[in-house]
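Hi support team,

I'm opening this ticket because the web form for multi-chain structure prediction keeps timing out on my end. I have pasted the exact lines I submitted so you can reproduce it. The total is 501 residues across two entries, so I didn't expect it to be a heavy job. Is there a limit I'm missing, or should I split the entries? Thanks in advance, R.K.
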Amino acid sequence: MSESAILRTPLYGLHVEFGARLAPFAGYEMPIQYGSGILAEHLQTRASAGLFDVSHMGQARLEGPDHATTARALERLCPADILALAAGRQRYTQFLNADGGVIDDLMVTRPPGADGRLNLVVNASRKAIDFALLDAALPADVRLTRLDQAALIAVQGPAAARALARLAPESDIAAMQFMSARPIQFGAFETQVSRSGYTGEDGFEISLSARDAEAFARRLLAESEIEPIGLGARDSLRLEAGLCLYGHELDETIDPVEAGLAWSIQKRRRVEGGFPGAGRIQRALADGPARRRVGIRLDGRALAREGAEIVGASGEPIGRVTSGGFGPSVGAPIAMGYVASAAAAPGTPLALMVRGKPLAARVAPLPFHPHAYHRG
Amino acid sequence: MSDIRFTKDHEYVRVDGDVGTVGISDHAQHQLGDVVFVELPALGAKFEKGAGAAVVESVKAASDVFAPVSGEVVAVNGDVDAEPGLINQDALGRGWIMKVKLADPKELDALMSESAYDAFLKTLE
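Hello R.K., no limit was hit. The queue was backed up. Here is the completed structure from your submission:
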């Protein structure tokens, strides 16, 4: 990060009070873990529910005269079909550079009721770049507003819906579909809720004013199912869920097809193009990419971490680990990385070089831990 | 009569006769967080003082365990191989890593006593 002062989220005081171990992350002083530790927090989220402060992420609003105008403006930067996004629905996409490399990945929500408006959530580490990109690319009739005064709280886990329904009994929140979004009133707290997350579990992301964030988080944590969870467990949860982390599985040299994100490029966009790097991406879709993101299971119990070289059966380098560690729910070391497409089939034997020694491993299907999204 | 000594790298050696039991301090296990893997040395391996002898991996990071004294490995703790979390639960007891036959007991004089190590930890705060 630059020398600029480290930032705090609206929940900083709460993190300190709950005994968090804090560390700088993307310019913010963030909780890495609380007293019970990363393993316990990970398992708590899988078994019950966890509260994650993700207020460091970049929230913004696009406003144009109507949905088609705003959607087409955003479609110039990303390959998802935003035009077809229904009111009250959310979609995952990426900002791409002219080579089809990923500048950032983001969530786009079309809120119900406000025609011409889209809400964006981008990565904390990339928000300055993303917002500059949008400022430069948007037409005069589509306005970008950064929501720097908004907090974002994720509640994830199988008990999340039950606990939240108790706090908003009139809302029917438990009936929301995965990747849907709408405003929900929790008592005095006005919020925007989407049923989505970054853990592979059922869960919600709740945007609200920074002013209300601490009181609302305290109310959530008063529910017996919900415990505070730090970024350490957030990372092990998303790794088990096979989800990309920007700066690891995604960067400006990696396109969404080799990253295994072709599902996020809907048919109309594949055919029509009209997004940065469309040529490379259409070729990769037609011919298959030269390399692919894969899951990797190690045969033994030693861990391989980011940066470890991946070698093929005869010791030749074929790629590099982008994320690796211990999967608490899997109960074994796991990793993701990029390998040549010829070596990307599940079951392919390979080795990961750790401290100069090859650790036997094989390509594994993603996710490592099954998703539990609420598809109704 | 056993005597425990610490290094600035947060290893300990508990000496009993000419054998030292080596592990990481309670402070070290707390800093590392949940330990999920321990790479133990081979029986019979010989280390110079300060050489990397084992690796303790937590959910967060891998950490080298440097030999606090020179000597030959005469035992390794199979229990931490099977249950790495023992290092978190009882670093100075059941979470030991290896036993070393001391090559030069005088090396112990350069290590910190328990009270000196506690004072050293206070300087890190």
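A quick check on our side: Residues 9 and 57 of chain B are 15 Å apart (CA to CA). Let us know if the file doesn't open in your viewer.
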